[in-house]
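Figure 3 (text version): structure tokens given as input.
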């Protein structure tokens, strides 16, 4: 891989392409292939260069809102599958398949606290 290959993707034209590919629904893996790098490299670039990360996030966000609005429209029309999906994801406290019991939630909190305490003990 050529040194500085990421630099052209930091230019306005490169960022616009990245945003457009994300908006078109391409996955990170597909975008990495279009760029000519492996997925791990794209992830590293996203971590090292906020401009790349933001362009991809911005492109995906537009599509996510579009799909979310379409799902809501279908749910309001009476599409039962859309209604179920919406409620399970937006109101899991009331609509998940297996509601958490209070005891179970308390046990989960206690286990989480115990795990955190054990992690702190392991750190030098």
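Below: residues designed for each position.
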């Amino acid at each position: 891989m050529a040194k500085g290959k990421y630099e052209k993707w930091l230019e306005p034209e490169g960022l616009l392409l990245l945003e457009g590919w994300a908006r078109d629904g391409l996955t990170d893996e597909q975008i990495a292939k279009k760029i000519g790098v492996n997925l791990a490299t794209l992830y590293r670039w996203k971590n090292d260069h906020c401009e790349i990360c933001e362009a991809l996030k911005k492109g995906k966000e537009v599509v996510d809102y579009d799909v979310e609005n379409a799902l809501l429209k279908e749910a309001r029309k009476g599409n039962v599958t859309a209604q179920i999906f919406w409620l399970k994801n937006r109101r899991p406290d009331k609509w998940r398949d297996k509601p958490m019991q209070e005891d179970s939630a308390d046990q989960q909190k206690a286990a989480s606290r115990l795990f955190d305490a054990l992690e702190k003990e392991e750190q030098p």
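DSSP finds seven helices and no strands in the chain.
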